[in-house]
Amino acid sequence: MAETAVKAPVKEKEPLFGKKERILLSDPLLDNNPITVQVLGVCSALAVTSLVVPSLVMAVAVVFVTGFSSLFTSMLRNYIPKAVRMIVQLVIIATLVTIVELALKYFNYPIYKNLSVYIGLIITNCIVMGRLEAFAMANKPWRSFIDGIGNGVGYGFILVVVAFFREVFGKGSLFAGSGIEMFIIGPSADYWINTSENWWFGWYANNNIMVLPAAAMFIIGIFIWIQRARNPKLVDIS
Amino acid sequence: MNSNTYILTFVTILTITVAVVLGGLREVTKEKAAQNEDIFNKRAILSSIETKLGDDVKVKKLTDEEVLELFSPANMDQVVLDMEGNILDGMMAQNIDMAVERKKEESERKLPLYIYKGGAEKVYILSVRGNGLWDEIWGNIALEGDLSTIAGAAFDHKGETPGLGAEIKDNPRFSLSFRGKKIYNEGELVGINVRKGGAKDPVHEVDGISGATVTGDGVSEMLERGLKYYAPYLSQLRQGGTSMLLK
String of b and e for A165-189 (b: at least 16 CB within 10 Å)? Predict the structure, then answer.
């Protein structure tokens, strides 16, 4: 709903990228992060984060969808009939998601296969519709666009952080599936730290839990813990 | 409140706009997307004969053109078989979708067969499909010229558990362990058994993946049943030599 909406600016002339815009962009990164503070979009954050590269692609896809759905919804906000506004929002989101899907099939089929249903499920990602309802329906296009981008980036940031830990400790590699794949730790000579020869790391084995979605829950939990320990203002929010 | 006419007009215009945009985009990307899918599937087949492609050749690192070159008629024969082992004329193995075939009656299925001729000896690549724990699993098994020794294997799955059942695809050691095993035992096609706790028979069994017993059993079952479909053709081939292929 529109309760949380920011009042439309009163002043006539404002800079294109002023302080308010900066806040719109930076706030969702930490203090109002969609995943760790608003607890939205957790489902896909658990599902796609076992490797860094697909998480990055997912993050870019969501940034694209949140940004442009906010932009288009905001542009149409005075014309959208109230009775069907959610349907209209969904049509806009679904269109953008389909575009992402077509683009992935066109540019990188293996990643499309890897992300499979989760691209389609961006439609149901609460962050997207949440921002449309809370912000884009009541604000001008440019600021809505920035707000959408900010929230998408906040989501993607958590995704990549989680994927980093899951890939390193679960598979011993980093950026697997891309041109710059790194082999960090593992039991053969391909890896930087060869656990079968290095005496110091002889005990080390990949943690299988990290590969499972449950591990993402732990990492997000630890992230929330650290974040709230550092910023007590967040404790009472949710 | 808006009038009904306004709502209907708005929704109609929106729908038409969206339909035109998406339809147009799909038309534009269709060809390249289909080509990408084709290359993706061909890479999966090639990964079962990775060792036959030459030293240090990694299927992942091949360019799209190289993949297509390996599938050119000079390097690869594509044959479609019926369940009696007869070669069906004028059909290409790449047009056979195993997922579709699996839904047909057993006697009406068609089997794709790839014969790689680029190496010193012909390699026969058979496709199998079965059930894992959660959903379908499938694989390509490459046989040496003796039609029993496995030259390589590659598996994939739809929804096996990451880190457990999904290791059939992700862990190269699993598919490597099939290399050199024999699918025939004293003239009888037995397939390869994935044994929980470790292989006991060094010729017809491979080690199971701990924590993925059901997926492993699925692989065993898929191999036994799927390879048996090819048995009529394989035995004809053994008796008739290679002349069958050059029809």
Answer: bbbbbbbbbbbbbeeeeebebbbee
Single-letter code of the amino acid located at B107: S
- CA gap A95, A65 in Å, rounded: 9
Residue A223 and residue A186: Cα distance in Å, rounded? 26
Residues of B in contact with A105 (CB under 8 A): 29, 33, 36-37
Q: pLDDT tens-digit profile of B122-139?
A: 899 999 999 999 899 999
Burial state string for B127-143 with b = 16 or more CB within 10 A and e = fewer than 16: bbbbbbbbebbbbbbbb
Residue type, B148: S
Cβ-contact B153, B179 below 8 angstroms: yes
Question: A82 vs B162: CB contact, 8 Å cut-off?
Answer: no
d(CA B227, CA A202): 41
Structure ipTM over 0.95, yes or no: no
Interface touch B29/A91, C-beta < 8 Å: no
* Structure-derived torsion over alpha carbons of residues A119, A123, A125, A131, reported in degrees to the nearest 10: 130
> For residue B242, is pLDDT > 60?
no
Q: What is the pLDDT of residue B246?
A: 44
- Alpha-carbon distance of B149 to B123, in angstroms, equals 10
**Partner A, chain B 69-108, Cβ-Cβ below 8 Å:** none
What DSSP designation does B63 have? -
Chain A residues touching residue B25 (CB < 8 angstroms): 99, 102
Residue B117 and residue B129: Cα distance in Å, rounded?
24
Amino acid at B227: L
